[in-house]
Amino acid sequence: MNTYKYCLFLVFNFFTLIVWAQIPSTDIYLLDVSIKDTNYIFSNPTKIATGNGYNNQPYFMPDGKTILFTSIGADNQADIYKYDIKTKSVLQLSSTKQFKEYSPQLTPDKKMMSVVRVEEDDSTQHLWLYDLNGKPIKMLSAINPVGYYSWLYENNLALAVLQKGDRMDAEFLDLESGISRTIAKNIGRCLVTNNINDSTHICYYVQKKQNDSIFLVNAVATNKIKHFNEIQPTSFMTLPNSEDYCLFYNGFLIGNYGKLYLNKNRKYKNIANFINTPYQNFYRLVYYPISNTKGKLALVVYENKKP
Questions:
Q1: SS3 content of the chain, % helix, strand, coil (to 5)
Q2: pTM of the prediction?
Q3: Cα 158 from Cα 124, distance rounded (Å)
């Protein structure tokens, strides 16, 4: 797989986590993607079935054979699960009674996974390291409360940290020094990182505006936490009331009211219509490129309308 690291949708926010009744019912659908010239074909939709009412934050493992995700069972505990794409089988990895785990991602060394762990008080949210079998290893950072994150490269992450007033700020964190630096305020939930090469690392984030439903996706380039700069040419506006997007092989994918759009060179093109399908109410999305003409698309879907 190339070095794309996709937005993974992590936890909803501090307030939705602490009250079970506010967590919506969501499903994950997996689709095959085929690209022929300028035509985009989405086929073979498969629902990742766990029997649970909340399935979210899909993450493709680098080999493209399995997906990590979060699911909440009858015990109201959020745990990490693994889905085998070939066999369509689901395996529960973590099973902690006093903690809730969200947003699994593989660490850059590919030996562990990171999660956002909600502690026993149901409000403290730290970034944790777990082994690949779902066993807690250690807390990665004391920053609290972490809402969303994405790895930049080894020992460095982009974080969305919750602030007073239901706002989130973007921070770059160096795990070795423990130093973090705020790079933007009032951001959206979707953080997307992409390693261009060993020295150039890109973080995309949504810059929100007050009293507006269309946001700006900005980019930050960095090779060290203390050195970063805005990359204005790559910025683009989201579609109305949409803040979830992912990297595609020649642009960005973003959904809007049941339709899928490709943003390329700041211009939108409608490439799929999912209205009247079981996955029309999708919002989060993750793309895994198999080649320049084939891939897999995971969609997170509200069972009913978005609350």
A1: 5, 55, 40
A2: 0.89
A3: 19
